[in-house]
Write a structure and sequence with these properties.
Blueprint (H helix, E strand, L loop, with lengths): L5 E5 L5 H4 L4 E3 L3 E4 L8 E5 L5 E7 L4 E7 L7 H17 L10 E6 L8 E6 L2 E6 L2 H5 L1 H12 L5 E4 L16 E4 L5 E5 L2 E5 L14 H9 L5 E5 L5 H8 L4 E6 L2 H14 L6 E5 L2 H4 L9 E4 L11 H18 L4 E7 L6 H15 L3 E7 L18 E7 L1
Parallel strand pairs: 1-4, 9-10, 14-15, 14-17, 15-16, 17-18
Antiparallel strand pairs: 1-3, 2-6, 4-5, 5-6, 7-8, 8-9, 10-11, 12-13, 18-20, 19-20
The structure holds S-adenosyl-L-homocysteine (SAH).
S-adenosyl-L-homocysteine binds next to helix 6.
Amino acid sequence: MTNTVATVVLNKGKEQSLKRFHPWVFSGAIKKITAEVKEGDLVRVVSNSNEFLAAGHYQIGSIAVRIVSFKDVAIDRDFWKQRLSEAINLRSSLGLLHNEQTNVFRLVHGEGDGLPGLIIDFYNGTAVYQAHSVGMYHIRHLLAEILKELLGDQLVAVYDKSDKTLPFKADIEPENGYLLGESSPTIVNEYNNAFRVDWVEGQKTGFFVDQRENRRLVREFSKNRDVLNMFCYSGGFSFYAMQGDAKMVHSVDASAKAIELTRQNVELNYPKDPRHEAYVADAFDFMRDIKDKYDLIILDPPAFAKHRNALSQALQAYKRLNARAFEQIRSGGIVFTFSCSQVVTKDKFREAVFSGAAISGRKVRILHQLTQPADHPVNIYHPEGEYLKGLVLYVD
Ligand code: SAH
């Protein structure tokens, strides 16, 4: 039996998605809750005819329960330990745990690891814990302790960085800080490229781990090309391009901090290399006048749509951005274009890029269709987990 606070009874017929293991219960599906619940409490979910369906963390909002188990078992220390060790085993089988070239990867990817509401990125000994639900926030100390048990000497510190990711309706005032041990900003390796990562000051957990394989693919397309890395953040695509013998690389980001980080990272990997220059600028301004200047353009913008109601505006932004690249890239050029908005589906994104291509009137062909890497697994019952979409395009 689960050790839950209350029982959530669903309306008749609303048990179907849980029977197909979809890990969310929407508030509209709920008939009643048998006791008073607080955000973050563990609840049992039953059908209208009182059949056990699942157990999960309760939260206020349209997603009312995030399911952690479809079995009627105790959600205790052993339960969490089992989940975390499964997550670690997967990374180990991907060869990421003791890897000489790469010591940065995603250790826990929410629903993809049966741990909805939790992200953990691993930076050469430091795990950065990011709770997106109050339930996962409440158990942060316990999970940090279990991680240490499982990883031993490989884990030096666990840093909690949940202040910006917890639902704002939750009435808690999270403060970031170390849950275990202590460490300082460090240099990590990804395919032997060095990155300075600062989880305290940096965006997200400090680094965009999810572009690892796509950065590597950029390297393959870079030989003798003039490259624009738009929305560069810490500059990863730029020095993979340099590694691939690009002729010239320009990195652009609206954030001065990001450009500083890019400069430091390029210097770490290619000291005093005259091929690279970095600019603080807005993407739409910078791309107003770049006619025939580049023959490889990377567009990796932030999530234009964080919520469903921003969707149509976001699609317009993707269309305009991509149109600008297609209009101005040299003939025979390559565009790497991405969307990391969860609410923008693969099809919608492709449509937006298609509309951008049509505006430019150029002949555009799809060479590769990209997604997130294997340490960001997608739970097959939760297709929403496939959030990163990318296209590699050839422009005649
Ligand atoms: N490509 C990066 C990740 C990009 S994240 C990597 O591989 O690590 C998105 C970046 O876009 C952020 O660094 C953010 O500062 C920048 N950004 C947001 N709005 C922008 C705009 N209008 N113009 C230029 N950069 C912008």
